[in-house]
């Protein structure tokens, strides 16, 4: 019991988080190492009552506690709110309180920084009518891929892997496990087929094997596309008999046996493949050659 | 001694639908519901933090920390949080957990953990309300209070 009490006393008397300046390490490098922010030297100076950035190797420096993280979040939110309110006539008093919060933060007075940031946020939001906040969170059953969409109200904050991204109304953010939040790329629109017309009957000459052609497929170009993928099948849901790619919005098909064909085209770009286009049908029929036999020596 | 401390906190004998039992002789404060289930549609099940089995949920049932709720495809339910009145609609084929109230140093407060499926959340007064949602990939914070705590 006595040992436990001694241990408790020792733990409560233990110094707060500290770090030791490494050989040839500057205060800026220490700030980067321990706070992840090379510009936080002022905070370290204030915390350790240093008159300049010069610190000798081996110096033990006191580090901020958990209150720094809370103050930073309050400050970030206040910055966002004040920035958003710029166009709507933000109160000068809110800007003044935000500046005050920034100063408090730089001088390691984190509690005062939180308070001033809160006050700035309150001043900004107090002048506006309250808007309900609605948003959705969708978690895929795979590895927890998360999609956050905001419908209305103030921005929602999405944090992953140390990166926080505000999501405004109308926006969507995607987070894959172990990765920071990203705005998903806009999917490519499916191309719009142009020629041949739906149900067109195309007469073509047969080659020696009885195959007909050529047939040229065209469609409306899609912006941001790298290539198009064309599939031609013998029936509506059947397997493709021709699969070809094109870099321009047209494709000349190889000769084909007579019959009906269904075709679709997809756009492929940096953001992936589009959905297939609407299905178009055409029919290939052999062109009948007009035979004219004239009377003569070789009749 | 550890056993003596643990026993009063163990609400043995309560059903899955009941709130965790509170011994009358203990000084342990009664558990406070974090949310209530409303507007149940289809098959909605609940698993208490102290239970091993899932049971069918009923309308108005209180939810305590570490309880879990799941819905089948096509089912749904609303969670009304007691603290600030924020409301979360739980979609079909979803699984959520009610987060612990105990603050963890250096970690933001969480109300809800979504493990699978979809939720639609609504805060009527985001200037005073807040909602924090955890998923396997991210933490989502809405409203202002969560930041200014």
Automatic annotation (TrEMBL), chain A:
Q: Which Gene3D superfamilies match?
A: Immunoglobulins
The UniProt entry, under InterPro entries, shows: Ig-like_fold
What is the designated name of this protein?
A: Peptidoglycan-binding protein LysM
Annotated source species = Myxococcus llanfairpwllgwyngyllgogerychwyrndrobwllllantysiliogogogochensis
Q: What is the lineage of its organism?
A: Bacteria, Pseudomonadati, Myxococcota, Myxococcia, Myxococcales
UniProtKB/TrEMBL annotation, chain B:
Domain FecR protein, which positions? 67-142
UniProt-recorded name of the protein: FecR domain-containing protein
